[in-house]
Amino acid sequence: MQDFEKLGLFYLGREYDVRSAKRLDNAVLYDSRDLVTHAVCVGMTGSGKTGLCLSLIEEAAIDGVPVIAIDPKGDLGNLLLTFPSLSAADFRPWIDDDEARRAGVTPEVFAAQQAETWQKGLADWGQDGARIERLRKAADFSIYTPGSRAGVPVSVLQSFTAPTKAVLDDSELLGERASSTATSLLSLAGVDAPPRSREHTLVSTVLSTAWTAGRSLDLPSIIEQIQTPPFQKVGVLDLESFFAKRDRFDLAMRFNAVLAAPGFDQWFEGAPLDPAQLLYTPDGRPRVAVFSIAHLGDAERMFFVSLLLNQVLGWMRGQTGTTSLRAIVYMDEIAGYFPPVANPPSKGPLLTLLKQGRAFGLGVVLATQNPVDLDYKGLSNIGTWFLGRLQTERDKARVLDGLEGAAASSFDRAEVDRILSALQKRVFLLHNVHDEHLVTFQTRWTLSYLRGPLSRDQIRTLMAGRVSSSESPRPAEAAAAAPRAASPAEQTSSDRPPVVPPGIEQFFIPPAATGGSRPPVYSPVVLAAVRIGFSDTKLGVDEARDIVYAAPVGDGPVAVDWARAGRLEVGVETLMRSPEHDASFEPLPAAASNPKNYPVWEKSFKQWLTQNERIQLLRHVETGLTSRIGETEGAFKVRVQDALRTARDAAVDAVRQKYAPRQAALAEKLRRAEAAKARESEQSTQQKLQAAVSIGATLVGALLGRKAISASTLGRATTAARGVSRTMKEASDVERANESVEAVHKQMQDLDEQLRQETQNIAADFERPPALEQVTLLPRRGQVSIQLLALGWDPE
């Protein structure tokens, strides 16, 4: 058995000879970097397609590559059924009692049989429980169930938030995002609205208008803006002519019916639909995020898949370029989401991921048993094809057409047709544009227990004991309300703002910034808006931070104490000039009514700010990378791991290139030694034949009745003796040639061992946890700019 634990290589199985129907010893090791050109797996039910794809995900997890897996059938949850001890007790909870009875045994006996089968199957492929344990430790495995609490619930509210700057700066990408989101929403609401319809145009315009302005939306606000859009024209037509108010109300009612449907509130709770959190845990550990959507209806599935793909696309655009595999998006049973003719909302973002994912290290893997339902024009962007048993000749012809278009001139259609017709279960044909030859292989035994689709109850049971960061959504970063000074008991609030002298500006903090929902009660604060710069050329830091502070104001000796100030998560532009309707106001302290106090407070604020405002960054000494302002430690560790993985791949390539000339030289030396061996063997054989003939002739002459030994007979005997001597010499030459061949083989083995040792040393260097150090930056003189200091009103 070959060693399959190679850096950056996925162990998928072993080569298979379809003519003799025998498995060969050569391990099929797939280079993870080839997956950035994406892959498709095609095979009928029972072909072993699920086992192959789960093996691919397992190998990615072992290599530290995170995966987002979309599971329409419920099979991918088997990735969590990993039992390192391989005991019957571990298998028993997942045994189907009916299946055990059909087998004629009790469930306990059937569990023991399954445990024994899995142990033997793993051993047959050079694997064991230790590799299962390695898989479990390599990544966090979680099952997400949108619209259900069976697994980790998912909040789709994140999908309507303003996209990242990378998306907003790309008008084409922003338009695609708004269009596909609108199509998904309309489909969910049961509205048949093609992209150029007025319903689609209205909803996509509402989304893009809000996003362009930096505003996020949720479903209730979308319903509100459908009735009262924040624009008066659509194209060259006024809003009422384009889409009358009565018709807009009907459309809003369709969306409201979705929002009011029983159980739909589950779509708005749980983990946010944020790829950065789905791919990695807060401490930077890679995650295999399985999205089980088998329980959803067709419209809900399309809605969620489209939103998820759009989120992944937006996340991808915000990443730096890389040649290594950064993450995988896998979707099982892609039929219906990537059709050849229709354009469902999932097709646009999926096609963009296939076209652009390579530059960002994002690999897309698609699987289907119905090849006629795939868009082969889009699949021309795919570099790896895994082809298993196909159900009909039509399916095989469609696969051959698609593969022929992707492989161009190097494609031998007749040979591929012959191989496809001879494939057995768990045997696949691998076509990789990065390799010169086709490979037929049998898939390895999965580390996960393949018990079949999981029900919602089984998912609930499975996830109940797996408490991870993914199960608890990250709390919303609500703005911290500024501390308030207590009012004397005799003071009473007013329903009108107090009158302030000229020269004092006053602003009202939006209630949303403090989370208020009732009519606000405003209390007075001093607002300070400041821009602070942080720069360090050595660390490559040059950023500015705009901050709004609010400090309580009172009547004591120190009216404003900046040590009690709180930071508001609002921008200056969101501060309002007028209060909310039906608001009330606490009394204004006398100090806040004196304009001369504000310059004094500004000066003290600047001094306090210079001494107290700072940022804490993380730095990885080995790579020289420094965390960005606002970047979490987990996200920074992900960047460091990406850089280390790229460096690791480069180091492995360098080692392989260093040994390549010596390997080629030894291969040539072996060729010459084997040629010499063949030549010496041929000469030895001929000499033996000649010696035998000579000896035979001498004996025949002696036996023909001659009474005396003639001179010719004596000469032939002498010649025969010399032939025997030469035969012995040729045999000695053959032995020396054999020794030369064995010596070259030994040199090649020694060289391979040196290569293996060096790659293992590289692995040991890169498997160490990254050492991070903290860096503190303070604002320098001239980097603090007070933009505003005024009277503010803080709502409760």
Relevant terms:
single chain; 796 residues; alpha/beta; 11-stranded mixed β-sheet; 6-stranded mixed β-sheet
Largest sheet: 11 strands, mixed
Radius of gyration: 37 Å
The global form is elongated
Distance between the termini: 70 Å
Mean of residue pLDDT values? 84
Beta-strand portion reads 15-25%
Quickly count the helices: 20
Number of strands: 24
Query: Which stretches are poorly predicted, pLDDT < 50 over at least 5 residues?
Result: 467-491
Helix/strand structural class: alpha/beta
Widest sheet: strand ordering: 2-1-15-14-13-3-12-11-4-10-5
Report on this structure.
It is a single chain. The chain is of the alpha/beta class and 796 residues long. Among the domains are: 506-614 and 778-795, no CATH class; 662-766. Helices cover 41% and strands 17% of the residues. The protein has 20 helices and 24 strands. The strands form 5 sheets. It has an 11-stranded mixed sheet with strand order 2-1-15-14-13-3-12-11-4-10-5. Strand 21 and strand 22 form a beta hairpin. The longest helix is centred in the C-terminal third of the chain and has 71 residues, at 633-703. The protein starts with 8 loop residues before the first strand and ends with a strand. Mean pLDDT is 84; it is low at 467-491.
